[in-house]
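If you are new to this repository, start here. Below is one unmodified record pulled from the training split, so you can see the exact layout before writing a loader.
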Amino acid sequence: MDSKRLGKALDLMRLAEEAAARPGGISLAQITEIFAVNLRTAQRMTRALEEAFPMVQTYTDRDRRKWWQLSDHRLLRLQGLRDSELSALDMGIRRAERDGALTEVVALTSLRNRLLGTMPASLARRAEVDAEALLEARGHACRPGPRAQYDPRVLSVIDSALKGPFMLEIAYSGANDASPRSRAVKPYGVLFGMRCYLIARESENGAAYRHFRLDRISHATLMPNSFVRDPGFDLAAHSARAFGSFHSDAEYGPVVWRFAPLAADVARDFVFHPDQQVETEADGSLTIRFTAGGWLEMAWHLYQWGDAVEVIAPPELRAMVDAHRRSDFPALP
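And here is the target side for that same chain:
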């Protein structure tokens, strides 16, 4: 079989897999997106699916879209776990370890082991060896990165509270506390990074969202009383108010950086903020604009660029970095 025919056969198997794995089946629009093909090719693929798998079921929804569904899941079980899929799982586990997301580490590891357990031992071992080779080739074998440590039992309690949602009682040592103080809070989410933060409202502090460092929470207890979450709270939008993990309403505002022409191509490959705006200037420099707070974390990052970046706004951040811009760094980030 030539490579073109082999590719079509693999695409057909993958299409059958998608039709079996998705509860509602798969539509033409989804096929064009997943396989990066046009509508006519997607239609040919569905005809091949119907011919190769006579048990495929089709139906049309109220929007007159046609769906293809395979209810027989034996096909999925026979395929086992591919080395590329196993390496992706392992990569996710190691990234979660690096970010301190210990609950995700446990869940992903359990999923990985359960999937491997469905395969014959020889095939499972071969998949593990191949996956490890992929990880090493991509540089993900060992990259722990610096991060503050916290008690994983604290995160486990927080996870249980978020599912409720239930109130939490935490023993927290603030920057000015000589010893941990007990606080009753309403948890809203967790931000992972070099430092990990619990986002919560204190029961005695109104509607303000506080950020509690996980490494400063010595103990957490699940309380029996639940609470009603603010329906307007959005974790992604909230996290975007900061450059890193530190939030400050007083520092929140427009940020403008200009990268010199020699650094423009490198800076263009970075996502400094999810809502950034990028503009190439007439002289070849690159201007980045976004709105966020956290000047100290911005200064830590900007230091890596030496004198190849200039802070246009805010003036407070400009004052923090101007005296530390260097010209002798041998490389850009």
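Two things worth knowing about this chain: Residues 177 and 278 are 43 Å apart (CA to CA). The chain has four domains: 3-77, 80-137, 152-239, 253-324.
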